[in-house]
Input
Amino acid sequence: MNQTPRALNRVVLAVCGLALMAAGALVVALAVFEPVARWWRSATAEAGNRLDQLLADTTLPGQPGSWVWLAAAGGLVVVLLLLLGWTVQQGSGRLGTVVVDYDGDGAPGIVSLGSEVAEQALKAALHERPNILHASVAAYEYRRVPGLRLRVLPRPGVAPQAVAADIMELVEALDQVVGFDPPVVLSIGAGARSRLVRADHRVH
Amino acid sequence: MTQLRDDTARDSLRAGLVRREMHSSRAPASLILAFLLAALCLYVLLEVLLEAIGQPPWLLDPRGFAAWLNQLPDNASPLVLGASGTLILLAGLVFFLQGVLPGRLHRHLLPSRRGIVVVDDEVIAAALARRARLAANVTREQVLVTVTRSTVEVQLRPTSGRPVSEVAIQAAVEDELARTGIEPVPLVTVRVSASGVVGQ
Output
């Protein structure tokens, strides 16, 4: 429940994976098949000639080198910036404010609720439960809709539906207090902490 | 009309959230790929800039490298070439599969009045193991429960001299599974081993 660009991740991974596979297959083919090696020689020689021609054509009179190098440097900087943008998008979407009321039923002023309101209230309530070892609450934005994501590690052996019903009661109480019902995702899991308590199961 | 549109928007939001919770985001693989690509780009950028301002190259001379590429099958041993090619191919395959495979997480969706509830299979397995253990009156080391998307497998080693009813355990586990409300209900198989455990 965040703004990780999942479709972009998959497209870039698939395209780069294909490119790497093609490069690897070419290297293997070069090592194994003689005709491929012959083709590679002539093809790269031709490409090298063209490149030399290009470098010669783009060298401005009175300059030591071609401006293609500077253009390539600019292109690489753009690629680096794109890569940086892609990286910082992973796991983004964390919200500081869950709801803003500009109208306030005609009253002057603005009411805005920080995500801590929901986070602290739910966390405090969850930490009191003996069958819950750890709980974390965070507000995220998904498709421009603010929502809450809860991750709970119950004690092993506790029925998950009971934990879920318990927590959803808390969430409904919070809905009443805050006066709006954001989408809520509850993820019940088993972390390192619950595994240490005791282990009587295995999952494949 | 707006009500209807609100409902469809809500449903599609819900479907999207469920999809995100049940499938991997591929963020780790993306970060690794981004780091590798950025390192490569930085190095090439350095060499290109050195070339552009007419300085000697740092590690590889672009022209020399191009000439080396051109001479490729002869200036490297076929063994090294084949091995490195296979490694590149495998790395590419890993990234490609990360991009293409569905990446379904080991989780189940629970029905809920409010919100979306997903449970790791491990949690379900622990709950079922507890129920099977109580039904068979054995210790927790004697029960092993494996939960996958459509099956639940219970392996139980009874205590020597105390027979265990396979049918009763099957019924107990199926009851516990029905209580979670998972759809579709996974198929439960119970296997009680012939050899018992002594002194538990």
Summary: The mean pLDDT of chain B is 89. Residues 24-100 of chain B form one domain. Chain B touches chain A through 90 residues (CB under 8 Å).
